[in-house]
Design brief:
Number of helices: 1
Number of domains: 1
Distance between the termini: 34 Å
Low-confidence stretches: none
Number of strands: 3
Strand content: 5-15%
Helix content: under 10%
Mean pLDDT: 91
Strand order of the largest sheet: 1-2-3
Bound molecules: FE2/S2 (inorganic) cluster
CATH topology: Ribosomal Protein L9, domain 1
Length: 83
């Protein structure tokens, strides 16, 4: 069975991506990632190292702690225009 990818929303912080992933920029170029390590993606928009979290969320007192609501259908990016 293939290893799955897990994305955790950290309270007031980044998205933590664990598992076999490939992260590419808008041109399809790969960001180098350390094998076996989780990737921390900025969610606050303040990182100087985007798309990675650099801890700036603490400095700007970023607050967001969305909770999963299993009984509600989610809205996926594919449902809306994101480009
Ligand atoms: S979430 Fe950490 S710098 Fe944005």
């Amino acid at each position: 069975m293939a290893e799955s990818v897990r994305i955790q929303v950290r309270a007031d912080g980044p998205l933590v991506v664990s598992g076999p992933v490939e992260l590419v920029d808008s041109r399809g170029e790969r960001f180098p990632l350390a094998p076996g390590k989780s990737v921390y993606l900025c969610r606050c928009g303040q990182s100087a190292a985007k798309p990675f979290c650099d801890g700036s969320h603490r400095r700007v007192n970023f607050r967001s702690d969305p909770r999963a609501q299993p009984d509600q259908p989610s809205q996926h990016a594919s449902d809306t225009s994101v480009e």
